[in-house]
Design goal:
The protein is built from no helices and seven strands. By secondary structure, it is an all-beta fold. The chain has a four-stranded antiparallel sheet, with no helix packed on it.
C-alpha cells in the first residue's frame, strides 16, 4: 500500500470480518482502532481483528509504504 501525505481510509472507521497485519516500510502511519490512535514508523508492524472499528492515514510529509495483508481477501 502506498499512501500519499494525508492519504488514508477516509473520515469514518469501518469494520469487516477477518484479520489484518502488516509492516511499515517507509514513512509514518496512524492506525486508529476503537477510537484509539496508534502511531507506526518504519519497521513497526501491526496485527488486529478486522471486526474492530478501524481507520488509517499517512501522518508524514512524504509517501508512506506498507506491506498489508488482509484475510479473507476483500479486494
Amino acid at each position: 500500500l502506498d499512501l500519499e501525505p494525508g492519504g488514508g481510509s477516509g473520515d469514518e472507521p469501518y469494520s469487516h470480518a477477518g484479520e489484518e497485519c502488516g509492516v511499515v516500510i517507509e514513512g509514518c502511519l496512524e492506525i486508529s482502532m476503537d477510537g484509539r490512535p496508534y502511531i507506526l514508523n518504519q519497521g513497526d508492524s501491526f496485527h488486529f481483528e478486522s471486526s474492530r472499528p478501524h481507520q488509517f492515514r499517512n501522518l508524514g510529509e512524504g509517501k508512506c509504504r506498507v506491506i498489508w495483508a488482509t484475510t479473507p481477501p476483500i479486494w
